[in-house]
Amino acid sequence: ATASGAAAASAEEVDQTWVQYDLNTGETLYDIDFDAEDPLHGFVVGARGLFYETKDGGKRWVSRSFTNLGKGGDNISYRFQNVTVFGDDVWIIGKPALLLHSKDSGKSWKRVPLSRKLPGDPKLILAKGPGKAELATSSGAVYLTENDGKNWRSLVKETVDATLNRVSSSGVQGASYFTGSVKSIQRSPKGTYLAVAQRGNFYLTYAPGEARWVPHNRVSARRIQAMGFRDASNNEKADGVWMSLNGGYLTACDKDGFQEFESDTKSLFSNAAIRTGGIGIIDLAFRTPIEGWAVGGSGVMYISKDAGKTWQFDPTGRDLPCNLYNVKFFNSGKVGYMIGSSG
Length: 343
Known about the structure:
Blueprint: E1 7-12, E2 18-22, E3 29-35, E4 38-46, E5 51-54, E6 62-63, E7 79-86, E8 89-95, E9 98-102, E10 110-111, E11 122-129, E12 132-137, E13 142-145, E14 153-154, H1 160-167, E15 182-187, E16 193-197, E17 202-206, E18 214-217, E19 224-229, E20 241-245, E21 249-253, H2 265-268, E22 270-271, E23 281-286, E24 292-296, E25 301-304, E26 312-313, E27 324-330, E28 335-340
Antiparallel strand pairs: 1-2, 1-28, 3-4, 4-5, 5-6, 7-8, 8-9, 9-10, 11-12, 12-13, 13-14, 15-16, 16-17, 17-18, 19-20, 20-21, 21-22, 23-24, 24-25, 25-26, 27-28
């Protein structure tokens, strides 16, 4: 588990305890990924171009840097938000809009040109093999490249904006307030996408092969803080999604009905028993279909051992002077990381 303060924490399957790693930087960490083909090789990325690599499964992290990002001497400070690794292929998404690609396990990098016509900014990318990757943007566009980003094929026929203009009269409350972008976007191992509108007033789903996104009502008057899939890291079957609401509330749906058009979300989602004291849950991941971990502001950590119905506070993060933004498990759930701000 990666803790904050450019600190990283990790948990082994055996004892479920989390160990803090200090990366000696005060920057916020945003994402971490390990190569499915080589569980010892991973990257962590963050604010101000922060970029670390490990080749021994996370025992030692080495700082890396990009020398040729700024053209003509512009000193833009990029925030690296997303990293994905598959064999020799590594992709990184940055903000302001930036896409980097390495074909040699991160030794050398090339900046992939982004079209000015691209709807939205790159938000999420998944490496799928040599030269092959799937990219989603903040406007809900989803693209596939099979030649290192030279050409991109659109998988969705219209952006979220266009879809809402067509269906906003069909009962999705808050759709008329849509700002044109989503604040979070997630992809399940099956290729299904889940996005939360920027204002948190509704969510959207996209299934592979479909022409467009499907909007859905939120479950209560409280705005959606975050959402994600319940897929278990140990590859056992686990359906559904989780949803955190403003004020520290947590709900979940363990069926696939959450993505059906005009589904009654209030009857599909059930509240989880969790005492957060009002601190919002920012991310959640299931190591197994039964065991889940949730993280949030002020370094809070919670564990569930009953498939997310009830959650207990884990004191490990009590003294962390930071927010935890991301929890991920790798190597079939044997290793976990929590990452966040420097506090």
